[in-house]
């Protein structure tokens, strides 16, 4: 493992540790909230008893009792919410998922369940890029909430470069013409983009999200992982394709 990879894993581990600590703090805060609500219920009950013991019956007393009843109802609702959140299995499972990431850097089961595909638009764009009769030479796929969708497609490589922001994750599929005048041929490339400002958690999710979209984007000669704008360069892409040689049907990776 290179020093760069070790540094990346340590960086990821530190941030995942912080997330685990934050979630533990959140659970502790819910415990404090529950105790505070119990104390509030006790105070309200004592106040209610004192109001009930008043000899003087008046409109003000009836109004206070009505408002007090409403307050007790709201306190009971708050107590119920706090208790449900504390005992919610999903909160516990989230913490377990973070601990799993910390120990093995793997969150595949969680991400696989939450990330979806707009299969129709992705398949359409994929087929469009692969079609010899189509002018479309690239397609870009991005995250729309918890789904991966086709964000754009076109033929101008300059436009292609504009679709990868520093705070975004994305995928690209390209058709490039290779060879010389005597031997022209089309080759296909799959790129994964993780911008420099993407969070550590979203970086960790990228490998499983990539596996999901590759269920459709399966035919390419080269796969590249890109993390800076300078790497989105057509000459570097063609050089990688030249070095790759034959076609790769989604079974390997060739990095710059």
Automatic annotation (TrEMBL):
<keyword id="KW-0963">Cytoplasm</keyword>
<comment type="function">
    <text>Binds to F-actin in a calcium-independent manner. Has no direct effect on actin depolymerization. Acts as a chaperone for ALOX5 (5LO), influencing both its stability and activity in leukotrienes synthesis.</text>
</comment>
<dbReference type="InterPro" id="IPR029006">
    <property type="entry name" value="ADF-H/Gelsolin-like_dom_sf"/>
</dbReference>
<keyword id="KW-0009">Actin-binding</keyword>
<feature type="coiled-coil region">
    <location>
        <begin position="54"/>
        <end position="88"/>
    </location>
</feature>
<keyword id="KW-0206">Cytoskeleton</keyword>
<comment type="subunit">
    <text>Interacts with 5-lipoxygenase (ALOX5/5LO) in a calcium-independent manner. Binds to F-actin with a stoichiometry of 1:2.</text>
</comment>
<dbReference type="GO" id="GO:0030427">
    <property type="term" value="C:site of polarized growth"/>
</dbReference>
<dbReference type="GO" id="GO:0030833">
    <property type="term" value="P:regulation of actin filament polymerization"/>
</dbReference>
<dbReference type="GO" id="GO:0051015">
    <property type="term" value="F:actin filament binding"/>
</dbReference>
<dbReference type="InterPro" id="IPR002108">
    <property type="entry name" value="ADF-H"/>
</dbReference>
<feature type="domain" description="ADF-H">
    <location>
        <begin position="114"/>
        <end position="242"/>
    </location>
</feature>
<protein>
    <recommendedName>
        <fullName>Coactosin-like protein</fullName>
    </recommendedName>
</protein>
<dbReference type="GO" id="GO:0030864">
    <property type="term" value="C:cortical actin cytoskeleton"/>
</dbReference>
<dbReference type="GO" id="GO:0005884">
    <property type="term" value="C:actin filament"/>
</dbReference>
<dbReference type="Pfam" id="PF00241">
    <property type="entry name" value="Cofilin_ADF"/>
</dbReference>
<comment type="similarity">
    <text>Belongs to the actin-binding proteins ADF family. Coactosin subfamily.</text>
</comment>
<keyword id="KW-0175">Coiled coil</keyword>
């Amino acid at each position: 493992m290179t020093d760069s990879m070790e540094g990346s894993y340590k960086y990821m581990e530190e941030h995942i540790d912080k997330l685990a600590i934050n979630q533990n703090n959140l659970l502790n805060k819910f415990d404090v909230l529950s105790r505070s609500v119990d104390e509030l219920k006790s105070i309200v009950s004592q106040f209610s008893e004192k109001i009930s013991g008043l000899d003087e019956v008046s409109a003000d007393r009836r109004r206070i009792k009505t408002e007090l009843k409403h307050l007790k109802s709201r306190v009971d609702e708050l107590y119920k919410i706090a208790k449900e959140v504390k005992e919610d299995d999903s909160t516990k499972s989230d913490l377990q998922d973070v601990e799993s990431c910390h120990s093995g850097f793997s969150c595949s089961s969680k991400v696989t369940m939450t990330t979806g595909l707009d299969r129709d638009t992705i398949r359409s764009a994929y087929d469009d890029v692969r079609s010899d009769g189509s002018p479309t030479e690239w397609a870009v796929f991005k995250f729309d909430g918890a789904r991966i969708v086709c964000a754009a497609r076109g033929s101008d490589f300059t436009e292609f470069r504009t679709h990868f922001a520093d705070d975004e994750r994305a995928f690209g599929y390209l058709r490039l013409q290779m060879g010389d005048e005597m031997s022209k041929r089309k080759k296909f490339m799959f790129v994964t983009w993780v911008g420099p400002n993407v969070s550590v958690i979203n970086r960790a999710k990228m490998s499983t999200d990539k596996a999901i979209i590759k269920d459709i984007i399966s035919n390419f000669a080269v796969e590249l992982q890109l993390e800076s704008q300078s790497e989105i360069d057509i000459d570097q892409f063609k050089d990688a394709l030249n070095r790759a040689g034959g076609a790769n049907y989604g079974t390997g990776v060739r990095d710059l």
